[in-house]
Design a protein that fits this description.
Layout (H helix, E strand, L loop, with lengths): L4 E4 L8 H13 L10 H4 L7 H13 L3 H4 L6 H9 L6 E4 L9 H12 L6 E3 L27 E5 L5 H4 L5 E6 L13 E4 L2 H13 L1
Parallel strand pairs: 1-2, 1-4, 2-3, 4-5, 5-6
Helix pairs in contact: 1-3, 5-8
Length: about 210
């Protein structure tokens, strides 16, 4: 039986990131984000928002206390956590590249996880500690791989750009959770596209039985 662990990204896997960004885009600018756009390279690249507008939105997404009220769990996540236990997947944690500081995104993640999954405590780890420096520090942090311990594990991710880094950790298999904004991307060897948490459970059931 599989004896490794499951690691989740928070924003975009356990939490619906597009819905959150769209809420703030509408609140700030009266703009509705197309479902195909979630990352800065998509939203700015397509001219939906300017870079300055996007950075202001991103700051609110990650650091505004009101974010906790707007965050919603991804459909199927709670059921997945319960069913995965039946196949021996009990060591579960969340790794986020978002900054871990008071009232920051990692804190938002902890509060949301406790509210959404009270029976399934998940530990939140981040390689980026301390207070943020500015609204424009994106891209300056350490990658998620720096807090992953080598060993057999499944890592759920939503951004294809992070997959090569995650695959540098020995024993990692990446599940890319499918969204319209990451759909038209070819995945490297070692990564599997899953279309829902229940779809992912099918892979895990087969692996546990092997």
């Amino acid at each position: 039986m599989f004896k490794g662990k499951i690691v989740f990204d928070f924003h975009g896997v356990l939490a619906n990131m597009w819905e959150l960004k769209n809420w703030w885009a509408q609140a700030l600018y009266g703009v509705t984000l197309p479902p195909e756009y979630c990352f800065s390279r998509q939203i700015i690249g397509a001219g939906v928002l300017t870079r300055e507008q996007y950075e202001d939105l991103q700051y609110l997404v990650y650091y505004n206390p009101q974010t906790r009220e707007q965050l919603r769990p991804t459909p199927g996540a709670s059921e997945f956590l319960k069913l995965a236990k039946r196949h021996g997947y009990v060591a579960q944690e969340v790794v986020t590249s978002s900054r871990d500081c008071p009232n920051g995104p990692a804190d938002h993640a902890r509060a949301s996880l406790q509210a959404w999954f009270p029976e399934d405590p998940l530990v939140v780890a981040s390689p980026n500690q301390g207070p943020y420096q500015s609204k424009y520090e994106r891209g300056s942090g350490k990658p998620k791989s720096t807090v992953l311990v080598p060993g057999e594990q499944i890592v759920f991710e939503d951004d294809p750009k992070n997959i090569p880094d995650l695959l540098t950790v020995p024993g990692v298999t990446v599940f890319l959770l499918d969204w319209p904004y990451n759909r038209n991307v070819d995945l490297p060897e070692g990564a599997i596209r899953v279309y829902s948490f229940m779809h992912a459970l099918g892979y895990l059931s087969e692996r546990a039985a092997a």
